[in-house]
Amino acid sequence: MMNGNRFLAHTAIATICIATMASSLIAGELNILTWEGYADPSVIEPFEAATGCKVSATYVGSNDDFAPKLAAGGGVFDVVTPSIDTTYSLIEAGFVQPIDISRIVVWGDLYKQFTSAPGIQKDGKFYGVPYAWGAIPFMYRPDKFATPPTSIAALWDPALKGRVSLWDDKSALYVAARLNGDMNIYSLSDEQLAAAQAKLVEQRPNVRKYWATAGELVDLYKSDEVWISNTWGGYQSGLLASEGIEVVEFIPEEGAEGWMDSNMIVTGTPNEECAYKFLNMASGALGQSGVFKVNGYSSTNPIAAKEFMTPEEFSALHQDDPEYLDSLLLWENLGDRLQAYTNAWNAVKSQ
Amino acid sequence: MSVPLSLRLKRAVVLSPPLLWTLVFMFIPYTILFVYSFWIQKYPTFEPAFQFGNYVQLATDPQYLRVILRTIKIAFFVSLGAALIAYPYAYFLAFKVKRPGVRLALYMAVVAPLWVSYLLRAYTWKTILGTTGILNSFLMSIGLLSEPSSVFLYNQTAMIVTLIYVFIPFMVMPIYAVLEKIPKSLKEASSDLGVGRLQTFFLVTLPLSIPGIVAGFTMTFCLTFGDFIAPFLVGGPDGLMIANVIASQFGASLNWPLGSALALVMLVIVLTIISISDRFERFGQGKFA
Predict the structure, then answer these.
(1) Cα end-to-end span (Å), chain A
(2) Which domain holds residue B171?
(3) Is A302 in a helix, a strand, or coil?
């Protein structure tokens, strides 16, 4: 009888496994782990119709979500879209596979600054296709500030008690370090990290809430909880504008971080064909106009961008201004210092 | 001892699912956690090792003790608050409500919210406690506040309120179950002997209901202790709890070894609490029942 039970259980489990495997094989399903806005129906629906590859998206709130999800295994995801500070760790951990750039038709159209970025290559092989880029500026409610803020110091202004939000991410340390005058934000020494940590602890009375997702920051502004914060340049301000709430973005005197997101293919994906089709679409005209219209981010493909941006938009997003990109502190991989940064950030929140 | 084969087979059939469950979902995962806790983080992930560095780090870096103490504090206040609200309610249900239909309806009123997603219920408190929320609008409309206050949301009090609301069914149920079983004759005997109602409550009813309070307290305490949603939704910059730190070790810092060590410390704390509450319960029963 026990054997009978076991047999039944095994059969049931096997049936479920086979059924789910089969469905994902037949449909050409593509599971992508990406950012809010990057899998907008306006892009995904035409792509699905054209290729027959069904796309399911899961969203991350931070770059720190990619490696753990891939480390947990299970072969769930086929394509990931990490930022340039995370790409190299994924390559080193073996989570992503080399990309045959001869199969990426738009490769030559993309900004050389991005395709040659050290973060997406190893041993002469490429692992990522540049997709979108932008800055991490700050933003504020203009109706709450008599004089527009120009410095990060505004987020420490005692007058703004309980009105400030910062991204719940190690990047909070980058902000505090710059305020301390430490511009080497990706290679902070233990002393500099401790100083940044102390600065963030000092800021705590001002912090209403550390925001974890794009939607949460929008809610914080909408419900009148927060007046000033950092932001994913272009995205939340756009969402707020469509809600009728005016916010102004600014790059502070202390500079802003820059980011660039690339699409990468997860090692051993069974859906490689669909993955390549997706990468081509994402960095081509359809994907690039999608990320511009939905997220308001700058394009990594200036040739495609010229087609869907007006000349004004083209220059507003700094597509014709390589020096702007150089002025940003482009995110870097922290390597074995990541743990020190994460610990410092946790320590701030444990106070 | 010879047991007939058919009986042994029956026993095996009855016992094997729970045993299998315990093995697969309790024993194996905890063993894996235990092994992981001696591994070591090494960029870009972590690798097998046998060393006590993770435990040393937990003991020496003050942030972990701070968060553990904060979590215990919050769990204690949630359990206390839930008990103070749940006891009168359960008492009212068990002794004051005479009609079974009304009693059932009131009981279901406590249990029914469990059918709604926890996330949704916690999220609701944001709309109640927020600066532009229902509570602020109400206080302003009755003239208690002249402008919206931000003190209700994004702090530890908001977390405690939310968690009391979310976990209160786990306090009401065991207390009600115990109160309901107290024979009426005991209270009658007490009043026959000339003891007042208040004294009867403190000398008869309350002592007899201690096992229910302890059970409810233990459950709400342990549930709160492992919670990581409330800090995320209604907690402020000082809202981090121990489960959030574990999540960030398994997530952001990709330090599963340290996260495992922390999870085991948490497990030990919870087991300690359960065994203490077990003592309490037995103490209550031995003395009063």
Answers:
(1) 58
(2) 62-288
(3) helix
CATH class of segment(s) A138-255+333-350? alpha beta
pLDDT of A142-168, one tens digit each? Answer: 999 999 999 999 999 999 999 999 999
Nearest residue to A338 via CA among A121, A170, A111:
A170
- What's the angle, vertex CA B188, arms to CA B185 and CA B193, rounded to 5? 125
Instruction: Name every chain A residue with its beta carbon within 8 A of the beta carbon of B237.
Output: 204, 207-210, 349
Write down the pLDDT at residue B130.
87
Q: How high is the pLDDT of residue B2?
A: 65
Contact A224 B63 (CB under 8 A): no
Task: Pick the residue of B254, B255, B256, B260 with the most A CBs within 10 A to test the interface with A by mutation.
Answer: B254
Asked if pLDDT for residue A32 goes beyond 90, the answer is: yes
pLDDT at B61 over 50: yes
Residue A12 has pLDDT above 50, yes or no: no
CATH number for B213: 1.10.3720.10
Q: DSSP assignment, residue A297?
A: P
Sign of CA dihedral A228, A234, A235, A237: positive
Residue of B nearest to A342 (CA): B253
At A11 the pLDDT is: 46
- Residue A249: what are its φ and ψ, rounded to 5°? -90, 150
**Residue B32 within a domain:** no
- Chain B: closest CA distance from residue A308 (Å): 37
First and final C-alpha spacing in chain B: 36
Contact A342 B13 (CB under 8 A): no
pLDDT at A7 over 80: no
Q: ipTM beyond 0.90?
A: no
Residues B154/A165, Cβ–Cβ less than 8 Å: no
B4 touches chain A (CB under 8 A): no
Amino acid identity at B101:
G
Q: How does residue B45 score in pLDDT terms, banded at 50, 70 and 90?
A: confident
Sign of the CA dihedral A158, A163, A168, A174?
negative
Q: Which two three-digit tokens encode residue B272?
A: 């300690």
Instruction: Write out chain A residues lying below 8 Å of B255, CB-based.
Output: 339, 342
Q: What single-letter amino acid sits at A175? A: V
* pLDDT bucket at A72, cuts 50 / 70 / 90: confident
* B88 interfaces chain A, CB cutoff of 8 Å: no
CA distance A156 to chain B (A): 14
With vertex at residue B103, the alpha carbon angle to CA B101 and CA B104, rounded to the nearest 5 degrees, is 65
Q: Write out pLDDT tens, residues B183-231.
A: 888 888 888 888 888 888 888 899 999 999 999 999 999 999 999 999 9
Q: Which helix (H) or strand (E) holds B277?
A: helix B256-288
Of B9, B44, B232, the CB nearest to A92: B44
CA angle B105, B87, B134 (to 5 degrees): 70
Fold topology of A24-132+260-306? D-Maltodextrin-Binding Protein; domain 2 (3.40.190)
Every domain of chain A with CATH number 3.40.190.10 lies at 24-132+260-306, 138-255+333-350
pLDDT at A15 over 50: no
Q: What is the mean pLDDT of chain A?
A: 89
